[in-house]
Amino acid sequence: MPVAYDWSAVITAMLLVPVAYAATNLDNLLIMASLGAGPASRRNVILGFLAASIAVLTIASLASLIESLAPARLLGYLGFVPISIGVYLLFSNKASAGGETRTGTTWPAIAVLLLANSGDTVFALGPLFAESGDDARIGLAAGFTLISGLWLLLILTVSSRVAESATLSRLGHRLAPWMMIIVGLYILSDSTTDLV
After folding, report:
1. Residue 184: which of 114, 79, 97, 84 has the closest Cα?
2. 75 CB-side CA count, 13 A
3. Where are the alpha helices (DSSP H) in 97-133?
4. How far apart are CA 43 and CA 188, in angstroms?
């Protein structure tokens, strides 16, 4: 007997993940482009990125275990996590420092660097996994995989044009908070915590 999927949930999740991913990975794009243009080999950039992406997806998807520990009516309130991050970023006066990255050019070092810088991605995607049904989780994982692949292609392309990345950085700093807030509002609105 064929399995029936809720394709609207799958597609909605696949479309939402790029927003959350882009909102939380512009800084990683710049870090990786700098590494790819400088001290790291293309192979190490690719392997480090793939290892970090697999780790982020695994950690974020484990958030669905919260569903078994907390009442479903409370899970939507996890939307306040990305909203809080977005508001913080919106009102933060600190520019993110682009720390020294020349010391770690092996793929494990790159993976650790990206993973350490991906807490915001985990906090944005974790609540989506936790409050979503199985069909939507399939869409989330598929969307994450697709956007990760596209992001890697973008990293490799931008690596050759690092001088132009200052504009991308300014744009990212302006858009990232708003994208985080949108993701949080989606989580709040698409949950059993709705008051209506």
Report:
1. 79
2. 21
3. 107-116, 119-131
4. 40
What phi and psi values does residue 83 have, to the nearest 5 degrees? -60, -45
Contact 24, 122 (CB under 8 A): no
**Crossing angle between the packed helical segments 107-116 and 7-37, to the nearest 10 degrees:** 120
Query: How open is the CA angle 92-152-166, to the nearest 5 degrees?
Result: 40
Single-letter amino acid code for the residue at 112: V
* Closest residue by Cα to residue 38 from 160, 165, 167, 180: 160
Distance CA 33, CA 40 (A): 10
What are the DSSP calls for 31-88, one per residue?
HHHHHHHTTS-HHHHHHHHHHHHHHHHHHHHGGGGHHHHS-HHHHGGGGHHHHHHHHH
Mean pLDDT of 117-138: 84
The predicted-structure confidence for 148-196, as pLDDT tens digits, reads as follows 999 999 998 887 666 455 665 566 556 667 766 877 787 677 654 433 3
* pLDDT band with cut points at 50, 70 and 90 for residue 96: very low
